[in-house]
Amino acid sequence: MSNEVLSPAEMAEADRRAIAAGPFDGIGLMRRAGQAVASLALARHPAAERFHVLCGPGNNGGDGYGAARLLHESGAAVSLWAVGAPRPGGDAALAAAECPLTPQALAGFEAGPGTVVIDALYGAGLSKPLAGDAARAVDIATERKLPVIAVDLPSGVSGDSGRVLGCAFQAEVTVTFARKKPGHLLLPGRQLCGEVVLADIGIGDAVIGELRIKTFENTPALWQAGFPRPAADTHKYRRGHVNVFSGGPSATGAARLSALAAARAGAGAVTVLSPGNAMQVNAAHLTSIMLRKVDDTATLAAILDDSRPAAFVLGPGFGVGEKARDFALAVLGDGQGRQNGVEGLVLDADGITSFEDHPASLFITAGAKGAAKLVMTPHEGEFSRLFSSLAGDDSLSKLDKARKAAARSHAVMIYKGADTVIAAPDGRAAINANAAPWLATAGSGDVLAGVVAGLLAQGMPAFEAACAAVWLHAEAGSSFGPGLIAEDLPQALVPLLRSLANST
Ligand SMILES: NC(=O)C1=CN([C@@H]2O[C@H](COP(=O)(O)OP(=O)(O)OC[C@H]3O[C@@H](n4cnc5c(N)ncnc54)[C@H](OP(=O)(O)O)[C@@H]3O)[C@@H](O)[C@H]2O)[C@@H](O)CC1
Ligand SMILES: [K+]
């Protein structure tokens, strides 16, 4: 799979193993990196008046010296600007020695219109905020709106977290090597990278396979094989039954949106579980979706005893409080290993907030033997209610936070945002990169919760169901585009589901 995402530390390990395995040594890999950058620069800017290649003291600078040499050999006008000298004897020093151009001090960097900047200052080794001459170079490129081609990462962007240290180049395109890094996908890094081009520099799939990578970009390759397909002889309950808890009479719409989305995602039957006082309003708006009255845990217990595969959604419009907690814990199981036929619980919105002062009860129940799978869908505010210490820890990336929260809560975490991260208790995590701004609309989260439940009810494992739902939801948002409201999303899933069904 090429959708593995390597941390800078994992990439350094891949470099070491690739060098040990051959055929390329360190300078061999670096020459290929320089070649990839130079080829892309010439292809994208054949009429550039000049390429300004900015080289730092580490191996990122080494890639820059290699690119500068090749651009110069191709006949392009090249200016080389350096900050700090490469460590003697290292690969970057070899690459600098192979480059016939004399570097000028970055302190004097100037660039006119029509020129292109190649940023090889800092990549995976970024260790402090950009300042001084490097920060001035960023200012010049930004003010003059010069196209920037970033080598590995735009200098200033952390490969681990996507955060900006000090300031950073806004790249038009970023050439990275072997696999993407979290900083290419997490915000704001994703935006600062521009287009990300993966270059093969000779680090083979076998080497990456040895690293047992657990981080992925969320693409269909990650979950398509397990995407539910109805068997020819199926019937509606075998396709899974989703139950969505409704709020009171003035807050029922969110549950119905979730229910509709679960049905579109392929659940064979969907029921809205409504408080008695909201039965009429729910009944007035439901057709193929069923309705059942549930006011207390005793009634809920009878539904849970029904052993058909089922998934539950609790949260959209439900209200915050003890009732939400009691219902959620009942759905998860009694902690005694009771197999209640429930595939999973999607805890969203008010369902999450209800546990703000009682997180341990949720986490312990979710971790008990035989508990139903728990999927939580917090946005940033909800995340901080349940995981305040993680949320406030600036040393952690969004990826780290989601992963730690999943392990702590025994839940698959869908940590929402424009760079949604999905993380499983077993350490796997996926970063989503296809979100559309149109998705930021009321009710959009209710739809997502319903899609997750629809896939869970059909037996899709929780992490894969969460990844598939996030991808489908985002893709539906982008395909619909401007004017989108949450009611449009379930229908917008249909062509995507069709093409998934046709692609295998
Ligand atoms: N064969 C290979 O190994 C291959 C490697 N490849 C390439 O190597 C790159 C990683 O190389 P790298 O590990 O040398 O780190 P790099 O990003 O050059 O920076 C380290 C230097 O910069 C300095 N420094 C950092 N931040 C700073 C700041 N804000 N302001 C000032 N200084 C700062 C830092 O200083 P220090 O932290 O030591 O104080 C150190 O001197 C990777 O991105 C890819 O492009 C590819 O060619 C594939 C083959
Ligand atoms: K760079």
UniProtKB/TrEMBL annotation:
AMP binds at K416, G417, A418, D419, T420, G445. Residues 11-209 form the YjeF N-terminal domain. K(+) binds at N60, D119, S155. Its cofactor is K(+); Mg(2+). Binds 1 potassium ion per subunit. Pfam families: Carb_kinase, YjeF_N. Residues 219-500 form the YjeF C-terminal domain. Catalyzes the epimerization of the S- and R-forms of NAD(P)HX, a damaged form of NAD(P)H that is a result of enzymatic or heat-dependent hydration. This is a prerequisite for the S-specific NAD(P)H-hydrate dehydratase to allow the repair of both epimers of NAD(P)HX. This is Bifunctional NAD(P)H-hydrate repair enzyme. It comes from Aquamicrobium soli. The gene is nnrD.
